[in-house]
């Protein structure tokens, strides 16, 4: 069975918050000597997430 994907749209500021929060969680796990594999994978996915261009209407299109 295929896994469902979720798409989360974040602006630049929100993306920074998520990256910093995941990094803080990773640092806490390292301090507790617990595995960080899942957080590492999610952090890399978040950092490398592609941008989505917004489609804008041309001023010639009918409204």
TrEMBL record:
This is Uncharacterized protein. It comes from Cohnella lubricantis.
């Amino acid at each position: 069975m295929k896994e469902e994907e979720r798409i989360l749209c974040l602006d630049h500021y929100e993306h920074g918050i998520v990256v910093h929060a995941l990094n803080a969680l990773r640092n806490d796990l390292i301090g507790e000597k617990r595995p960080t594999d899942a957080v590492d994978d999610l952090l890399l996915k978040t950092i490398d997430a592609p941008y989505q261009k917004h489609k804008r209407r041309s001023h010639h299109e009918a409204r």
